[in-house]
Amino acid sequence: MAADAATISRALVEQIVREAVTRRLGEDRATPSSRTNDLVVHASARHMHLCRTDLDVLFGPGHELTPDKDLYQEGNYAAAETVTLLGPRRRPLPNVRVLGPLRKESQVELAFTDAIHLGIDAPVRLSGNIEGTPGAIVIGPKGIVEMRRGVIRAAIHVHMSPAEAAGYGVKQGDLMKLRVLGPSPAVFEQVIVRVDPASRLNVHMDTDEANACALHMATGFELFK
Amino acid sequence: MAADAATISRALVEQIVREAVTRRLGEDRATPSSRTNDLVVHASARHMHLCRTDLDVLFGPGHELTPDKDLYQEGNYAAAETVTLLGPRRRPLPNVRVLGPLRKESQVELAFTDAIHLGIDAPVRLSGNIEGTPGAIVIGPKGIVEMRRGVIRAAIHVHMSPAEAAGYGVKQGDLMKLRVLGPSPAVFEQVIVRVDPASRLNVHMDTDEANACALHMATGFELFK
């Protein structure tokens, strides 16, 4: 079908979209996860961790985070609070979820897709290792914070308990490989091992990695040395 | 620094961004490419191919594409023309580049990031294989087209000449593996071989795959069976 562009109203476009594109929509795939072979693999969408000082500035003095959804690793949660990020390109990145609990220093974890949108050259780092990383502007409902550092792409990693580490024959900081089977099969060759007594076996990748390997359609995983 | 959100003007935000975020900006990374070990790997940003009928509707009867930039594969070019895509989520995806020359049937090639933005459940297909794929709304300066099919994630593939195929011991349609070395090392385990006398050795991946393996920081490639 064709129509003069000048005559295309919003209502027409909406009608066309409703009528024409009728395929089934999957659930929100922004944070897909898959469990196969007893291995749980999560995609972490862009998010940030806040320190007490920055929380006060962004959401008001004494504000406490509102836990909205427990994460797979015990004690961690997605908060109801979100912020907007700004970088050199001056294109805002809204609805960036705050994760709790609070940390000693604020940190932003982005996929490269997000970093490119902002114009920030994010390095690949393990969470918490933010020496020499770039900053960003964080906008909250009560104020804004200029982060001088802390914007990273979180390196793909696997959480596990000491017993699970012993089972794999690995220790804290070792590197493993993760094979993702499915329509876009791939092996991530540098998956950092993080061992903690409170941890459950769980791989964290970002949304670019999840999209690259079609995580939402994955048919199996292999984690190996 | 802190300020009352109600007092944050656009000018202030722009000033803050200019002053505070001073790190070096890389070149546009939307379509990175890297050459190492004589293997050229390109990231294909979202784009579309048009048939004669759809070009007429979108850009006017008899319109001819304006070659803007030659692509690495001889005879192919990025045109000056762009379109806007719409899907069920009714969030437009603007500035989708048209590639030439024209084809028998229109086709849209998206990364999953783009498909999720539109709300389209794109399957992984080799270019040209669009039986049973979803459609989209395409908006051009002169009209709109309702594509009933043709939206895909293009499967990662490698173009090569018959001589290069013989050198690797592969033939049309075979699968190879591509290892990308660097800060986010990964192996793509199903790289489809496309052999053509006019082809030059060249891997095409999409932007999700490029971001997952940090293609813009890649230090080496290995293509193997």
In short:
With 225 residues, chain A is α/β, with parallel strands linked by helices.
Description:
- The structure is a homodimer of 225-residue chains.
- The first copy, chain A, has 225 residues and is α/β, with parallel strands linked by helices.
- Chain A is 17% helix and 37% strand.
- Chain A is built from 5 helices and 16 strands.
- Chain A has helices at residues 10-20, 52-59, 112-118, 162-168, 207-212, and strands at residues 33-36, 39-44, 47-49, 67-70, 77-86, 93-100, 107-109, 124-125, 136-139, 144-147, 151-154, 157-160, 175-181, 186-195, 202-206, 220-224.
- In chain A, the strands form 2 sheets. In chain A, strands 3, 4, 5, 6, 7, 8, 9, 10 and 11 form a 9-stranded mixed beta sheet that branches.
- Chain A starts with 9 loop residues before the first helix and ends with a strand.
- Residues 1-7 and 19-31 of chain A have low confidence and may be disordered.
- Chains A and B meet through α1, α3, β9, β10 and β14 of A and α1, α3, β9, β10 and β14 of B.
